[in-house]
Each structure stands twice: as C-alpha cells, then as structure tokens.
C-alpha cells in the first residue's frame, strides 16, 4: 500500500507493507484522514508515537472495514466507519483496535466523518468527564475556530452551557457565533479575563495555550472553576500565585488522548464509548456538524500541514485517500 513516509521532515508518498489485523483489531481501507497539530509536531521530531503505535502520521481516519482480526464481533467487511488512532492514518490502510472504531453517524458523508474522532473524543472526555461542565455553566474555549473549538462550541451550546471563545480575527469570531458562541473575544486586542469579569467568570476553561495563559486563566475562572489544559502552544513552564487556587477553590487539570491506553479506567475504549453515547445522537440529529475547512489529496500532505500552519483555517483539514 501507499503511505506518507517522513524523512528529515520531508514527506513522500511511498510503498510500505500492508497492515494485518492483530487479535481484536480491524483493518480499515482509508477514505479520508484528519490532519492534527500533533502530526506537525511528530513530523518535526517533537511528538514521538507512544510505544507500540505505528510511526506513520495520522490520528484519525474514515473508511471501510476490509479485514477482521480474531475475536472481533459486531462488525463486517464493508462497514463504513471512522476511527481514533494512535498513529498510521496517512495511509491507504490502517489496523486499529476494534474499541476505537465508531460507526459513521447517519447523515454524515464518509469523507467528513474523518473530521470527527479526535475532536469528538477530546471534547467529550475533557469538558464532561474531566471538567464536569453542566447546563447553565459558562465554558471558555481558547481557539474557538480550531477543529477542537468549533466542535466544543457546538457540543457545549447543545448541552445548554453558555460559551465564550477566543480567536484572532472578527471573521473567525463571526463563524464562532454561528456555531453557538455567546461571548466573542478577540485575543489580539482584548484581555479575556477582563471581558469575562462582566459575566462573573468562567466555570470551565478548555485551554490549548498552556503556560502563557495560566495566570490569566486562573483570573478568568469563578469560584469552584475548572481549567483543563489540552495544548501547550504557549509553552510548558511558568510561575503562578497558588493563592489564587486556594481562594477560589480552583482545579487545574491536563490530559492527552493519544497516550491513553486502550483499556482500563480513562482508556480509549471508555472515551470512545462515552463519546458515542453523548455526542453521536447530537450529530445524527444535525445539532452538531463536522466542520471541514479543506480536503487535500494524501500526496499533498505537506501542503495540508502548511495550510494548518497558515492560521487561516476554520475547523478541520482532511486528506482524501481512497475512492
Ligand atoms: N490533549 C489532547 O488530547 C488534544 C487532542 C486534540 C487536539 N489538542 C490540541 O488542541 C489544539 C487545537 O487543535 P486543532 O487541531 O483543533 O487546531 P489547530 O490548528 O492546532 O488550532 C490552533 C488554534 O490555536 C489558536 N490560537 C493560537 N494562539 C492563540 C492564542 N494566543 N489565544 C487563543 N487561541 C490561540 C488559533 O486561533 P487563531 O487562528 O484565531 O489564532 C487556532 O484556532 C492544539 O493545540 C492541539 O494540540 C489536544
């Protein structure tokens, strides 16, 4: 099969061996693959795959099941699915534990389904299972126009939370409003903690910036607020006044999806199952939609990375692989 191979950060479409399904795995003939910031970090040597994972880029795909490993039941060859991966998505075929496979939601086309696994599992596990967002609370989402941000906004809005977002331009903020954001903050000209003062502060913050925003995030939270950090685009190390945590009874948490084991508490199997229960009905009802910015051919994966890096993206960038 063909797959994208990385050599000294250069990407090429090359011949590699076909995967075979281990026990408990299925092989998917890939139709589309999602592009994630993690792929760009991995390409640069800064985000190695977890032990045992494919070293091919790609954390999510959609496609059709073409082979079943021993012990797999409930799926058949030809089934249209999408899947969460620890790696291997930039390829014509990928093997994946069956627990990480999700049926394509009714009403979603097979290519767009590749935009769902990473954002849906990341958002569901973080804002609900980790930060326990509830109806009527205020959620601040940094990077409201990103793949994660556009999905989180729709989900939180659908669940009856109020949503504040940060983004860099008015165009992006206008799109965020269409997805359900109530409070729009241009981070290039506004201080988000100051803006949120009028709303009494955020109950939950979904943060992708890390160190650079930590102090302001603590300031922006109200009493009993929860900060969940899922990205470190603004660095890993900083100093804070712990007094703010104590006085407002704040919680600061961090998670990553890729490093979770498949099984066990908090594992990928658990995350996928709860995402299917919580999020898939909202997608099938049309309340939450996949947001696809642009689709590139697999051979142009480098151009897809350049596009994601351009900052000119709303939602997800995909690679078209089969069909
Ligand atoms: N921990 C996990 O399990 C996990 C899983 C998936 C993704 N993530 C992380 O989630 C983030 C979003 O990923 P993605 O693939 O959806 O899209 P992405 O293309 O990585 O999105 C980057 C976003 O960062 C925003 N941004 C940059 N500087 C900012 C700042 N100073 N303040 C507020 N926003 C800022 C950008 O907004 P503008 O364009 O408006 O500047 C853009 O929306 C990434 O950091 C990714 O690593 C984590």
UniProtKB/TrEMBL annotation:
InterPro entries the record matches: ADH-like_C (IPR013149), ADH-like_N (IPR013154), ER (IPR020843), GroES-like_sf (IPR011032), NAD(P)-bd_dom_sf (IPR036291), Quinone_OxRdtase_PIG3 (IPR014189)
SUPFAM superfamilies found in the cross-reference section: GroES-like, NAD(P)-binding Rossmann-fold domains
Organism ancestry: Bacteria, Bacillati, Actinomycetota, Actinomycetes, Mycobacteriales
All residue ranges annotated as the Enoyl reductase (ER) domain in the record: 7-319
Keywords for this protein: NADP, Oxidoreductase
Protein name: NAD(P)H-quinone oxidoreductase
Record's keyword annotation contains Oxidoreductase: yes
GO molecular function terms listed in the Swiss-Prot or TrEMBL record: NADPH binding; oxidoreductase activity, acting on NAD(P)H
């Amino acid at each position: 099969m063909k797959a994208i191979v990385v050599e000294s950060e250069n990407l090429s479409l090359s011949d590699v061996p076909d995967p075979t399904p281990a026990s408990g795995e299925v092989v998917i003939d890939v139709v589309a693959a999602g592009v994630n910031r993690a792929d760009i970090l991995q390409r640069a040597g800064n985000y190695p795959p977890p032990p045992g994972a494919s070293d091919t880029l790609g954390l999510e795909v959609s496609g059709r099941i073409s082979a079943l490993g021993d012990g797999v039941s409930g799926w058949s060859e030809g089934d249209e699915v999408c899947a969460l991966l620890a790696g291997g998505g930039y390829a014509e075929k990928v093997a994946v534990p069956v627990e990480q496979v999700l049926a394509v939601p009714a009403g979603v086309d097979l290519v767009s389904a590749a935009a769902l696994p990473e954002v849906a599992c990341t958002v569901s596990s973080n804002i609900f299972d980790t930060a326990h967002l509830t109806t009527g609370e205020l959620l601040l989402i940094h990077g409201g126009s990103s793949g994660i941000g556009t999905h989180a906004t729709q989900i939180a809005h659908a669940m009856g939370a109020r949503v504040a977002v940060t983004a860099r331009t008015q165009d992006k903020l206008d799109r965020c409003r269409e997805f359900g954001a109530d409070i729009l903050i241009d981070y290039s000209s506004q201080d988000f903690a100051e803006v949120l003062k009028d709303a009494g502060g955020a109950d939950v913050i979904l943060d992708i910036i890390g160190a650079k925003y930590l102090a302001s995030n603590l300031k922006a939270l109200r009493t009993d607020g929860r900060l969940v950090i899922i990205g470190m685009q603004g660095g890993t190390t900083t100093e804070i006044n712990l007094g703010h945590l104590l006085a407002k009874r704040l919680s600061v948490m961090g998670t990553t999806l890729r490093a979770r084991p498949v099984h066990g508490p908090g594992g990928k199997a658990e995350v996928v199952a709860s995402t299917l229960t919580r999020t898939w009905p909202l997608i099938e009802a049309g309340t939450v939609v996949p947001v696809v910015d642009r689709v590139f051919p697999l051979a142009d994966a480098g151009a897809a990375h350049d596009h994601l890096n351009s900052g000119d993206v709303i939602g997800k960038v995909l690679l078209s692989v089969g069909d």
